[in-house]
Write a structure and sequence with these properties.
Blueprint lengths: L1 H19 L23 E11 L2 E2 L6 E6 L2 E7 L1 E2 L9 E9 L3 E11 L4 E4 L4 E4 L3 E2 L6 E5 L5
Parallel strand pairs: 1-10, 1-11
Antiparallel strand pairs: 1-2, 1-6, 3-4, 3-7, 5-6, 7-8, 7-9
Length: about 150
């Protein structure tokens, strides 16, 4: 009986520590400041205020992070942002600046880091980069989806 209790306690400790110790991929933010490390490499930007859903359910939470890519090149990151007013109060959105040296024409794809599961997910949608593009706001964010295909 004591062995079962020990195994149960060990499992719960490991499970909880995985939530506490979960960090976004170090390649997204090598110095840990929550900001895109290579901002000076680019001349142009576009902004998106986004909400992340999984199979239609809002999943943004504290500690999550959103990343933008062109091909395999990281082009922007955004830590969680808790909305503190209006109809979206209490939700977590991602206010991301996407960077480029082109004024338009690059396809931007996205990844989402879920701090609760310590997993990185691909986002279903992509955006065509355009200089000074501004999509979404705190009242009406752009919705990005993680679709797991589970019915």
């Amino acid at each position: 009986m004591k062995f079962f209790t020990f195994k149960k306690q060990l499992f719960l400790t490991l499970l909880l520590s995985s939530f506490i110790l979960a960090d976004p991929p170090s390649s997204w933010d090598s110095n840990g400041d929550g900001e895109f490390d290579n901002i000076t490499d680019y001349q142009n930007s576009a902004s998106l205020t986004s909400q992340i859903t999984m199979d239609g359910v809002d999943i943004g939470s504290q500690g999550d992070m959103f990343a933008a890519y062109v091909g395999d090149e990281l082009r922007g990151i955004a830590p969680h942002y808790e909305v503190t007013f209006g109809p979206n109060q209490g939700k977590y959105f991602f206010l991301i600046l996407v960077y480029s040296n082109a004024s338009s024409g690059e396809t931007v794809t996205f990844k989402f880091y879920d701090s609760e599961t310590n997993l990185v997910y691909d986002i279903s949608e992509s955006v065509e980069f355009e200089l000074n593009l501004a999509l979404g706001n705190i009242l009406e964010p752009v919705e990005f989806n993680i679709y797991l295909g589970i019915d």
